[in-house]
Amino acid sequence: MRFITxxxxxxxxxxxxxxxxxxxxxxxxxxxxxxxxGVEMDMDDxxxxxxxxxxxxxxxxxQIILGSLxxxxxxxxxxxxxxxxxxxxxxxxxxxxxxxxxxxVSAVHSAYHAASLVGDRFSVIExxxxxxxxxxxxxxxxxxxxxxxxxxxxxxxxxxxxxxVSQYSKEERVKVPEYKSxxxxxxxxxxxxIEEDRADTxxxxxxxxxxxxxxxxQRLVELGYGEIQTVCQYAAAVEMxxxxxxxxxxxxxxxxxxxYLKLKPPLR
Length: 268
Prior knowledge:
Elements: E1 2-6, H1 21-32, E2 40-43, H2 58-78, E3 83-86, H3 93-99, E4 104-106, H4 107-118, E5 122-126, H5 129-142, E6 148-153, H6 158-167, H7 170-173, H8 177-195, E7 201-204, H9 213-222, E8 229-232, H10 233-246
Parallel strand pairs: 1-2, 1-3, 3-4, 5-6, 5-7, 7-8
Helix pairs in contact: 4-10, 8-9
């Protein structure tokens, strides 16, 4: 199998030398766990929104949608890939499923499905409150709001976490005080989700946050929460793509129709 990962936009501190270093580290972690056996993974750089670096509004979101859709079309037409994986808060997911000719999954959507398979009550751990609101709305759109019991925030921006990860290697960053602070601030909302919201499963959401999965899981085990299941969005998306390819399934044309739909329903 050969997959392509499409991020929502080009990282603001992106460099050709490092590439998408956070996603690449997450892929390396998956590879070491044996999750990428038989899978060849390519990484798109993301569309360049450099002129919009400091503004995160509706226009910024619209540009993300247009940029991602152009890449979905590009990779579908290339005939090189078996599936497309979209990471980040993929606001364009429904539109992308309308234009994609091959299996297409999103990290958020895949993680919600994975969490629902293993439990009845999941909580999403997000970086900031705006991202938490998006996560809540996605659960409603995807039909999981009855299982999503909370979205807890650890109050470190994705930018600050990305900066930390980019400055130090895996071995170096565990010795940095900021690393311990991020882990502590992730563990705290996890415990609240377990104790106060009665969550049985935790979803680690935004991409930089997933870098700290192993450290947070180890801390939860030490605190007596080893039975709580955890799901990382990117890893869930890779597994979902493998399932769709192996089952030879694509998004249903009647659910995500183009103007060329042949089996048009008489009533919507």
